[in-house]
Amino acid sequence: MPSRRVSYDLAEAPMAPGEVAIVGAGPGDPGLLTLRALSLLEQADCLVFDRLVSREVLALASPRARRFYVGKASRCHALTQDETNALLVRLAVEGRRVVRLKGGDPYIFGRGGEEAEVLIEHGIDFRVVPGITSAQGCAAYGGFPLTHRDHAQSVTFVTGHCKADGELALDWSALAMPHHTAVFYMGLANAGLISRQLQDHGLPASHPVALVERGTTPEQRRVITCLGELVETIAREELKPPTLIVVGEVVRLATTLAQPTPAAATCIEGETLELVPRRVVL
Fold first, then answer.
1. What is the extent of the structural domain holding 89?
2. Is residue 9 situated within a structural domain?
3. Which of 9, 45, 50, 163 is catalytic?
């Protein structure tokens, strides 16, 4: 049976020339994209996107949209954040309908707030569309909840790396509370510090930890370990970013609630990406 598009009426004004939409692309599975995000992708003249936005999500954008890759990895940035800000301003000033597409949710460790501040400073209209953040997607597809009446009554999302090469200064006592789930984004490089600090502040070495690599995608891997073996597990399994670290008793539910890994997606051929020149000025 041929596929059928879902019809919808979002009762929302269409994008205006010179407007920027800061949109959450979700953790990878295109089925987790919101209808509002899909509507804006179809309207975009320009698509400015990060490294963690999946090819399947990008394929939903208008084929006429120019694509600008501004992804960041550790010590390897296609553009600095200032240059990305400048690009958004330039495209908007040129009258383009710009979708700034970010993995997960743009306001959860996505620098969406910083970009919104720049747009306001330059008098540029914008809207924000939330997305399913990695913690939600990785937990659901990894087979465990983030909260549970018997195991965790609170959850904290934590950035696992610093803005600069400084100390990861966190409220470790709060993160090591009982009946609590702590989710570390971008934490692989500091896994040893995370393990040591949580144990120093009261959690046992046996406390369960889930590692979810490339969550919600066909390449998803879920590894269950404990705080005392966290560093060794990461090395043994050769886990790479993006990998989420989830610490908490809820992880024990993964043995009973786990679901199959998402079905393999069809490879999209022939997609071309427009590389942004390094010199971008306001």
1. 20-132+265-275
2. no
3. 50
